From TrEMBL:
It comes from Desulfosporosinus nitroreducens. The gene is thiS. Pfam families: ThiS (PF02597). InterPro entries: Beta-grasp_dom_sf, Mopterin_synth/thiamin_S_b, Thi_S, ThiS/MoaD-like. Coiled coil: none annotated. Gene3D superfamilies: 3.10.20.30. CDD domains: Ubl_ThiS (cd00565). This is Sulfur carrier protein ThiS. SUPFAM superfamilies: MoaD/ThiS.
Amino acid sequence: MRVNGTLISLDKSQTLFDFLQSQSIDINTIAVERNGEIIPRSTYQNVVLSDEDTLEIVRFVGGG
């Protein structure tokens, strides 16, 4: 799987939610695009990842 341009090998089948937790990523401060499609946060627990997926994870940054 490719995440923000970096290859990552999945050791086991897991959901997007489980993957983000394993990476210590706060789901409340990000948006995720999988294979060119924005994934609604409410479906993270239902999206099963595969080694063929490409994820782009974008963090929200405050400022002014």
